[in-house]
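User: Sequence recovery, please. Input:
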């Protein structure tokens, strides 16, 4: 027994053989048709192509949603876009005003900045 029959590829090839021969006979029978019948088949194919093209054009022109999106569905979709609460706001230990966590207090920073500039002017560093 050969390796081809043991693996089962020969059996698979035999099972697909009738399908291949049927398609071959259809293709070869096109040459045996009368010219008038062949012309009729070709004209039908062309008209079918035109109809399919018209259908596709109409489908593209009418490509709109079938139903209106309701207010509740729109609200459900937009619910994750709402403004979130900030949880990183703390009190400044120096002045007691609100500041962002891990950031300098803007009021204290401005106060220190003006005092430092005044110090530079007084000492002549500027």
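Assistant: Recovered sequence (126 residues):
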């Amino acid at each position: 027994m050969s390796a081809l029959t043991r693996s089962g590829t020969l059996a698979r090839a035999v099972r697909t053989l009738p399908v291949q021969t049927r398609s071959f006979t259809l293709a070869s029978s096109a040459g045996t048709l009368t010219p008038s019948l062949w012309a009729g088949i070709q004209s039908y194919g062309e008209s079918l192509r035109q109809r399919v093209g018209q259908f596709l054009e109409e489908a593209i022109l009418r490509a709109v949603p079938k139903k209106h999106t309701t207010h509740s569905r729109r609200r459900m979709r937009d619910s994750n876009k709402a403004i979130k609460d900030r949880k990183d706001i703390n009190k400044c230990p120096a002045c007691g005003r609100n500041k962002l966590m891990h950031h300098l207090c803007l009021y204290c920073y401005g106060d220190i900045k003006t005092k430092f500039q005044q110090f530079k002017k007084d000492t002549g560093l500027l």
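The chain has three domains: 1-32, 35-63, 89-123.
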